[in-house]
Amino acid sequence: MELTRLPTDDNIDGTQAIRRAAAILRRIGQGGSNGVKLGAITEALQLPRSTTHRILKCLVEEGLVRHEQDKRRYVVGRLTYELGLTVTHDTLEIAQWRIAIDRVAKRTGATSYLMGRSGIEATCLLKTEGSAMIRVIPVEVGQCRPLGVGAGSAALLAALDADTSEQVIQTIAPLLQSYPNLSQEAIRRIVTEARSTGFAVSKSNVVKDVIGIGMAIPMTEGTTYLALSIAALASQADHQTIENWKQIIREEIHAVLHA
């Protein structure tokens, strides 16, 4: 499985075009509200510029993507957002964690997140800003990151079996160029710690002077695919504060699971 290279085999049934369109949507999602330029999409997916532009034009016409012409960037379109609001079993399950996200943000004062695993990426599903005077928001709702980038994402990576998590780390390695303070070895250390303590801690690995603490939410069946995490200023978090935050996260996850 690769993030940056798409299948090049010819398809007469249209599956290649669908895969390319889906990959483009995922790449745009990674850009969050800032959007992504055409060049960045073609580089990431290693597609001809003309092919990428043709698919983007169709996605824009269908409302799945919006082109901000003044900024020359592409962002997620209204139809993609509306489709995401469809009530399904997954959306109901995600919604039950809203109270936990809100309570963690209130009790810690830090920005709180619900991250969800999708393949080898993690997506921000819910977010509640904390009450701290300086608020840290390293990721927005709907924004995607490679597994291992950020505390919640790293907690989800640690929840996978050892062989699968190592394959993911090797696969996302080329994307770590965007994160100068985060290496494969650093991710492995965070994952090892998470498996030992139950918490993934990312300190200034993604954003300078930002600490993230994430815990994977245990599932009764299947592989864990949700994690609760917080982000705060690292310079304002001593050892005792970090331990208190971990306890709060643990308590609020337990409260939802045993409600």
From TrEMBL:
Entry keyword set: DNA-binding, Transcription, Transcription regulation
Residues of the IclR-ED domain: 79-259
InterPro entries given in the database record: ArsR-like_HTH (IPR011991), GAF-like_dom_sf (IPR029016), HTH_MetabolicPath_Reg (IPR050707), Tscrpt_reg_IclR_C (IPR014757), Tscrpt_reg_IclR_N (IPR005471), WH-like_DNA-bd_sf (IPR036388), WH_DNA-bd_sf (IPR036390)
Top-level taxon in the UniProt lineage: Bacteria
Keyword Lyase: no
Pfam families per record: HTH_IclR, IclR_C
Entry-linked CDD domains: HTH_ARSR
Domain HTH iclR-type: 15-78
Classification via PANTHER family: HELIX-TURN-HELIX TRANSCRIPTIONAL REGULATOR, ICLR FAMILY, TRANSCRIPTIONAL REGULATORY PROTEIN
Name of the protein in its database record: Helix-turn-helix domain-containing protein
UniProt organism field: Microvirga puerhi
Upper classification of the organism: Bacteria, Pseudomonadati, Pseudomonadota, Alphaproteobacteria, Hyphomicrobiales
